[in-house]
Amino acid sequence: MASVDDSKQFVSRPQMTSSMRSSSYLSDHQQYRSTRQPDAHHGIDTVVEDLSPSKAPSPKHFRGVPSEDAPPTIVDSGVNYSFSHPNCTPSKGASVDRLVATLIYKSKPKGAISPVPKSPIKGSASESTETLPPNMAPTTNMDAFPLEPPTQESEQLDHIYGSYISPLCITSFLHLMSTFPMPSEAEEPHSSHRCLDNQENPRVVELSFAPAPLSSYLSLDDLRKHEMIYRFEQEWNVDVNLQRESVWRRHPRLVVFDMDSTLITQEVIDLLAETINDPPNLAERVAEITHRAMLGELEFDASFRERLRLLKGLPATIFEDLRPVLDVTNGVKELIRALKRLGVKIAVLSGGFLPLTSWLAGELGLDYAHANEVVIEDGKLTGEAKGLIVGKERKRDLLVEIAAKENIDLSQVIAVGDGANDLLMLEKAGLGVAWNAKPRVQMEADARLNGDSLLDLLYLFGFTVEEIESLTA
């Protein structure tokens, strides 16, 4: 009996006969999970599909390489990606007039709520650096429409929203730009921003936006000097540097510096005067003339000759004695190193004295150095100068000459200075930068830097702090 039962049990086992086989191994042996029965509760599955067994679709098995007879099943994930973006290159034949605003927060002493303009103290250029006087707008000329006359000073907002460039500061600036008339056929305004130094509490933010305000109504030069921009800077304690986005902005080829109060923190002629004890008030007299010349109240050429005559009789060795006294501005050495690694030519055009200017240029590794050459007889200064005085016209002409010699277009030239005698040089360059400058220069320059380090100049090229550290390493 046991053997019969075993036989019946063996016969009843399932077997795959030849009639049950197909020509596809995958079809014969594939496995799939049966359709899951819906849960007892009313879930999302019962909303998006009917999973009842009677209506469950039969599974479609993959039968090898996709073909017309057996196409692959394509499932739409719902994700859609487009290459089109407002910051992409425009379509063929079109152009985008995009502006870049580099906002740099002006840090101030702890506990200070509003900046207090400094009164010039004679004898030190660093001490005589001024901010714009209260209630002083970029223009008071009512004919210079659409510029506006000065109004009451605005309340500063950075101490409320943070001592850095806050999101509300960026929003406020974009709202300000949207108030200017736009071209009639321009695309919808769009913008993007980058924190160049710190994501959490940025001191430097680069904003790119388009379209730019209607140029026939407001040119870029007028926009830079507009009362609303000035007001915004005062409210948020920032410098707003507006540039037109172009390849030249990111790739300058020549940078020209003033020397006194720019590459160094002092005025050399004042240092020379301080070495003279007779008459006792000579240093103060020279500093007064220097200060007025930098403000633009005196013509530089005449004021320089007047000060030089007061230095008559100084020993020629005084220039060597002053070398250890020169205080190089913070960030200059790192900036020069970065510019040279970028292949940028560097020049110093000084209204000071050639012996010190040439020495400093050699120490810093500059390519060009121009300054005034004094007459020396019997080892002493005669109080006279040779040739042309390196004043505002001569600085401008030298900038053009150096650019031509190096075959550099002026659009790729940057000039940096602080005084009125630098204005023509700043105007001629593709970008003129006022460095901790006098009020008139602050108002007329293309860009303004009022920080602690001249290395901030690299932010105007669009470099991030990581890139700057790589260049200065």
Automatic annotation (TrEMBL):
Residues 12-27 have a biased composition (Low complexity). Its cofactor is Mg(2+). Its EC number is 3.1.3.3. The keyword DNA damage does not apply. The active site is at 258 (nucleophile), 260 (proton donor). SUPFAM superfamilies: HAD-like. Residues 1-71, 112-135 are annotated as: Disordered. Pathway: Amino-acid biosynthesis; L-serine biosynthesis; L-serine from 3-phospho-D-glycerate: step 3/3. InterPro entries: HAD-like_SerB, HAD-like_sf, HAD_sf, PSP. The keyword Hydrolase applies. Residues 125-135 have a biased composition (Polar residues). It is an enzyme of class 3 (hydrolase). GO terms for molecular function: L-phosphoserine phosphatase activity; magnesium ion binding. Pfam families: HAD (PF12710). One of its GO terms (biological process) is L-serine biosynthetic process. It comes from the Eukaryota. NCBIfam families: HAD-SF-IB (TIGR01488), serB (TIGR00338). PANTHER family: PHOSPHOSERINE PHOSPHATASE. Belongs to the HAD-like hydrolase superfamily. SerB family. This is phosphoserine phosphatase. It comes from Clonostachys solani.
